[in-house]
Amino acid sequence: SLKHEWMPLASVPLRFPIELTAGVYRATLDLILDRHAPGSIRITLLQDRIEAGRVTFGPGEVKVGERNLAALEHGTWYHLEVSGRFGAGSDRQLSIVMNAEDGRTWTTQLPYSKYDFDRPKEIQIIGLGVPDTAVQIDNLVVTVEE
Q1: Average pLDDT of 75-87?
Q2: N or C: which end of the chain has fewer CB within 10 A?
Q3: Nearest-5° Cα angle at 27, 37 to 44
Q4: Those residues with Cβ within 8 angstroms of residue 59's Cβ, 6 or more apart along the chain or in another chain
Q5: Using CB atoms within 10 A of its CB, is residue 91 exposed (0-12), middle (13-18) or buried (19+)?
Q6: pLDDT band at 27 (very low <50, low <70, confident <90, very high)
Q7: Cα separation, 134 vs 102, whole angstroms
Q8: Phi, psi of 33 (to 5 degrees)
Q9: pLDDT at 33
């Protein structure tokens, strides 16, 4: 939960195997809005300050870039997957898939916000809610595949 009036930021560096020149990166995590005091977070993939795109979660919706993806229910777990191709096969888009614990699924694609973006070097998660609100995050996993 947000205990400060400033926006808490977690920045996780990502490392790609040097021998991989093309492939798919994928970041997955589980999220839940507090039932009584739902907060808000933003997830951003960055490469040297170049942003691929943003996913904003909460308090009442999920936004991909500036587009609404889904309405959110407080106290419900959601699984979020953000992926993209890098290297020669890149289509310069993020693919977003979100599943609710009851089986509902939403999908969309978002063109990279900057053409020069190729692969993320970090994932940032920043709290945007007001103090005493909460979004819980679990099982953050980042994978890279050929």
Answers
A1: 96
A2: C
A3: 65
A4: 33, 38, 39, 40, 72, 74, 129, 133
A5: exposed
A6: very high
A7: 21
A8: -85, 135
A9: 94
